[in-house]
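Priority: medium. Attachment 1 of 2:
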């Protein structure tokens, strides 16, 4: 008789990466800016760098606080 164990490993959810920049509001200086998603080796290193106060804003935290959304272009098709 053969008994085998099966494990399913599932990583944390990845942010939906839009094709293009995001509109972000900094939680520190409350200024809005447009930026590309910076991606690092782990989920906690994915985010944005505020050009005004230089704070790193983690994508997960910004998304929880409704401070980030994909940039809407003025062209409609």
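Attachment 2 of 2:
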């Amino acid at each position: 008789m053969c008994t085998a164990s099966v494990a399913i490993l599932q990583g944390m959810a990845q942010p939906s990466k839009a094709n293009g920049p995001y509109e972000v509001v900094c939680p520190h200086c409350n200024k809005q800016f447009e930026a590309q998603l910076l991606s690092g080796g782990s989920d906690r290193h994915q985010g944005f760098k505020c050009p005004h106060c230089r704070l790193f804003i983690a994508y997960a935290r910004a998304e929880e606080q409704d401070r980030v959304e994909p940039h809407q272009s003025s062209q409609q098709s």
